[in-house]
Amino acid sequence: MSSPASTTLVDSFYTAYNEHAAAVAADLYAVDGLHRDLASGVTAAGRDEIARSLTGFVSRMGNARWAVTELLGRDDRFAVHYELTGEWTLRDGTVRPVRLPGIHVFILGDRMIRETMDFWSSAEFARQISGV
């Protein structure tokens, strides 16, 4: 079971993500925190890189929304199943709808996020933005 503190942290994380408040989301991480996007192979290290990464993502998917569907785990390590929805803007300006399930794994320490790992299907994302 997750503790009230970890649940509050997750709620704050997804509120910041859904408001596209990159600096607020990054401030939930430890100063040396990590966000690993496993599908793209990108790791953002530290609050500044984490904020830049989220800002870059929402620049292409400005209406992105993460909906939590399940939270599993214990006090300092847990996973959240989410569904990401929105519209991805291709480089040529074409907009494609996206509905993508994923899993965030959280590792906490000292009431901060030490690390997140984001798992989602790059093949499914590519299929959706190709319009197939």
What is the radius of gyration computed over CA atoms, rounded to a whole number of angstroms? 14 Å
Low-confidence stretches: none
| Number of alpha- plus pi-helical segments | 4
Helix content: 25-40%
Query: What is the helix/strand order?
Result: HHEEHEEEEH
Average pLDDT score:
93
- Beta-strand residue fraction: 35-45%
How would you describe what is shown here?
The protein is of the alpha+beta class and 132 residues long. 33% of the residues lie in helices and 45% in strands. The chain contains four helices and six strands, in the order ααββαββββα. The chain has helices spanning 4-18, 22-26, 46-60, 122-130, and strands at 29-37, 42-45, 65-73, 77-89, 95-109, 112-120. The model has no long low-confidence stretch (mean pLDDT 93).
